[in-house]
Amino acid sequence: xxxxxxxxxxxxxxxxxxxxxxxxxxxxxxxxxxxxxxxxxxxxxxxxxxxxxxxxxxxxxxxxxxxxxxxxxxxxxxxxxxxxxxxxxxxxxxxxxxxxxxxxxxxxxxxxxxxxxxxxxxxxxxxxxxxxxxxxxxxxxxxxxxxxxxxxxxxxxxxxxxxxxxxxxxxxxxxxxxxxxxxxxxxxxxxxxxxxxxxx
Length: 200
Fold this sequence. Notes:
This is PRELI-like family-domain-containing protein. This protein is α+β, with helices and mostly antiparallel strands and 200 residues long. It has helices at residues 14-22, 68-74, 144-199, and strands at residues 2-10, 33-45, 52-63, 80-90, 95-102, 109-120, 128-139.
């Protein structure tokens, strides 16, 4: 079994980061994610606290080459697979957490991934967002040398995908911020024009 744990701080407020998460795919920086489909979504209210959360299940279609050793040992050559993601968003506590797991090849390989985004206060300017990311890789192989080789290869690929994902998320956040600025400018221009017409 291999573990991968990392943290990353985004210099953006939680609301912007989480908005970008829903618009992250498809993206040119992450071509291995072909599509994302929402298969279930519901609002859940905690009966004791009254806190409301949005719970969502999404199906991600992934296309990436399988390590050659897996192909040789098990005949796994299918490049397209699916990942099930379950997420919960709580605006009251500014927390977004998700859990993902692969649906294909589970008899020989299980990859579990969890992510948690929380708001962090900042003494300098606006609040930032902390991302805590954990991945575990388990293969059902008895030969330690082969098992370690495959798990290490998959771990390196996931670490590379994490960097690509951060880049994609950053670009989406920039796009949202620009769109918000344009909208605000347009609204201000319309309001100014309306006032001018009223004064004439």
